[in-house]
Records
---
Amino acid sequence: MKISPAEVQKLREACGAGVMDAKKALEEAGGDFDRALGIIKEKGLARVAKRADRETGAGLIYSYVHAERIGVILDLRAETDFVVNSDPFRDLARELAMQIAANGPENVDALLEQPYIRDEKRTVKSLLEDVVAKVGENVRVNKFYRLEI
């Protein structure tokens, strides 16, 4: 089956996979985009487990204030400054801070098990795993603080 560069690019944009990974997934899926996306995610999640024990020495302190009544300070970590400065990592920090503001979890474990506010069929942990698969490094929530008036 002939896979067009446009199809490969579309899949890459959807999941952050490399060119060859996207092309192989499309070939394996017989050109079916949704099936190829599922294949990429399966393989990405396998890579996530391998990265879980890596040291996360770089990080970002992200702050979010909602309606001047709720404030969140988030300590989000990755392996390198390169990833910390990437768009997927910074987008994750924003999403996590909003999640914490909205749902007020007691700790990191509770946060990761919560349904994601933008898609209740997913957990926050799956959102984090998607970013790990995209950036190729271990990413973890170190700690957070939430204040409410």
---
Amino acid sequence: MERKRIHILEDDQEIRNVIEILLKDEGFELQLSSSFAELKKNIQDAMPDLFLLDVMLPDGNGAEICEDLKTDIFTKHIPIIVMSAQNNSEQKAIDAFADDYISKPFDINDVLERINAQLKRSVENRIKV
């Protein structure tokens, strides 16, 4: 079975490290970015199977980035999970067409379950098409 690639856009180094360790242990291939500019550069090399986006970033807003990705013909089919510590971000993420939302602080097992659920749904949707 081919390894799934997850792109993590998170500017907080500690949070990025925790997620990276967790997902590598689960056998995922990872792309890591700490800014929107870095994400754009990284996805030119290889498209991920799922995006995990933080909301508060040095050069953008994760909800707006989510909307950009969901309205782009090349990335609109890729599931996106938005993460934030801000209370008002969930509605913004939903409005931006996010497939799921995780509030920080988060439970590691919950993050893993949500990622796996989105990847499974993504495969099922491709089979239906």
---
Amino acid sequence: MPRWIEDTDPLPPGRSALGADSEAPGLVAVGGTLTTARLEEAYRKGIFPWFSQGQPVLWWSTNPRMVLPVAEFRVSHSLRKTLRRFAGRAGCEIRVDHACEAVIRACAQAPREGQDGTWIVPAMIEAYAQWHREGRVHSFETWIDGELVGGLYGVAIGRMFFGESMFARRSDASKIALAALVAWCRAHDVPLIDCQQETLHLASMGARPVSRAVFEAHLEQVLQAADRTDWTYDPSLWDELLRAGHGGGSEPRDDP
């Protein structure tokens, strides 16, 4: 059984999570309040909250963990055409942190691959909006003619970006935001984006699973770095991404 925690209890380590043969593989703990201090503790341990309305807070450390090495991001032919068209058209722009809470709320309303309803419940919206105001949560937003049409948000600590959710109100708008995040991460020496759970959509763009041990070892390397203070998007970053296409990086990777 997972451990029940109170607000004064530390989170157990990820390795204590329920195994693959349990009814809730990856579940580390149950309970506590969803504060930004608790979230900071959790993400530094590779743990994240995921629960439905009416449930207590459920804390997870999935094994394996889905990650996107930014050097391996796959820019398909169709996406490359979309990005070039977006980058070259007046009125199309990427904004960072311009409407972060609106992005979180839009993600809460967006359908999720393989899921009914949403895990971005009101308590999650409130906690991550507050964490954004404290400088830890950031959004990459796709704007066309002054309208927010897609985007994503996530958590940044040191040289790590933990992706949370995406939404799109126009075709490929979330992919454009993800491509912008990848380009920003490449430019700022952030080698990996955490995707938490495996989806076919993310796998098609270069994400892959790694073991919990490999993921936690990576966190030990990157979380000690100074936090980024420059959260702007330079349109010139499109040039590097479109030139690079599908890179061949290898951090981190499980042994074959």
---
Amino acid sequence: MIGALPIEPLTRAAFAAFGDVIETDGARHFEINNGSTTRFHDLARVDVAAEGGHVLVNIFRARPLAMPLAIAMVEKHPLGSQAFVPLEAAPFLVVVAPPGDTVEPDDLRAFLAEAGQGVNYAPGVWHHPVIALGRETDFLVIDRGGPGNNLAEFFFDEGDRRIVEVSRPMVATP
């Protein structure tokens, strides 16, 4: 194993190279439905059209992984974006690396998505599969369906794995 991977706060600026942060704070918004609803507008660039793709709307039920977590693999979706939005007020961990043919352990970055935040990975961004914290969590996932190979996986050698650990207690609000 190599050094621990620091966990950064998830902000639009820090995450911009990897995709979009989906949240209402600071988002463009306006009133609709005769003033009974606030629309937070254009929160993520869903990109699934490559090679005849179409939008999929899914729910993933993620179980927490044991901490500390050795990052053994990452994956990417070269033909489309992939958005994760928790369906409850639950934090989750995001581990990403820039697009490319391969990924190095030092390319990895970790972000803590707080309750009320989601992410949209840009096409080709390496990321660890969803990491729920504290308890089983359902995520609304918007990604690409259709022809073509939209999944690549990269496995780190055992000696090249980074360790990530959330040090504060993670309790999702029921």
